[in-house]
Amino acid sequence: MRWRTRATPPCCGTRPPSRRSSPSSARCREGTAGTRQGEIAMGARDGAFDHGPASGEVLILHGFTDLLAPDMRVRLMASLSPEEEARRRAFAFPRDRDLFLLAHAVKRLALGRCLGVDPQDLAFARDPSGKPFLAGPFLAGPSQAGAGPGFSLSHSGTAVAVAIAGTPLVGVDVEAHVREVPLEAMAMIMADAEVADLSAAGAAARPRAFAYWTLREAFAKAVGLGLSLPPNDVSFQLAGSGPAGQEAPAVAHLAGHLGAAGDWHLHQCDLGPDYLLAAAVRAPCPVVWRLMPMERFLAGTTP
């Protein structure tokens, strides 16, 4: 199969273990699509929101818009800034308004709790590439890496994910499995090594392409480049691949201006049967991925 014809495109702190929650809808990917999947493992854990992410932790809050009962909707709307509420109202369709509400309200509530401040006191700005960051006294822009928590938002279908880390270099992506993106279109944004892997994958090509796609989206968000990230500046190795059959996905190659490949940590898991989540963070030490359903987080926040 011809995949594409493409020109070059335009330290670690510790925390007490969290209490285990009831089984979550998030399930870690222990291998590539079509292989065994297990409960949250590989350093990822699901627990009560008793603190923000420690150094070396990434907190991922995940949920679905069906949790927006009338009282919850009112409660979350109260946490938005006037500018965010105006943006929410500007969406033509209720589904899009709900996705925006859940993502941005949970972002504010989680960051407020991490920092011990009123969520409405938080201010946000964007860097020249459009990547959002905490502003004001909690500045966490790329020029102030480590000065405050970084965050990333994603949504697809009815699913929403919010990632928070101690560095601004964090990204998350969630995608619906039913999204029918042609393989040739996905290959256009992939590295040559990834395209070669897909060409040899046979029937497994589509799920592998989907895994590459979400990892690349998460990484591109983390570095603030989005679709402007040149395909061959980074390539990924999927979980279960490589000579060692590593349990987690990894950065296989990285252009020098993006740092050292070994400083990047990746995570990928299914959110129920219909969605795939990927996250990326740059950290100089091993990372603990801390996953939590939004319902559990919201149950522990005060109205």
TrEMBL record:
Under the heading InterPro entries, the entry gives: 4-PPantetheinyl_Trfase_dom, 4-PPantetheinyl_Trfase_dom_sf, AASDHPPT_N, P-Pant_transferase_sf
Gene3D superfamilies, from UniProt?
A: 4'-phosphopantetheinyl transferase domain
Per the record, its GO cellular-component terms are: cytosol
Domain 4'-phosphopantetheinyl transferase N-terminal positions: 76-163
- Bias type Low complexity, positions: 9-26
One Gene Ontology term of the molecular function aspect: magnesium ion binding
Q: Which family does it belong to?
A: Belongs to the P-Pant transferase superfamily. Gsp/Sfp/HetI/AcpT family.
Which superkingdom does the taxonomy of this entry point to?
A: Bacteria
Q: Where is the 4'-phosphopantetheinyl transferase domain?
A: 170-246
Swiss-Prot/TrEMBL keywords: Transferase
- Which organism is this entry from? Xanthobacter autotrophicus
Gene Ontology biological process terms in this record: lysine biosynthetic process via aminoadipic acid
Q: What is the lineage of its organism?
A: Bacteria, Pseudomonadati, Pseudomonadota, Alphaproteobacteria, Hyphomicrobiales
- Region named Disordered: 1-47
This chain's protein is named 4'-phosphopantetheinyl transferase superfamily protein
Question: What sections of the protein cross the membrane?
Answer: none
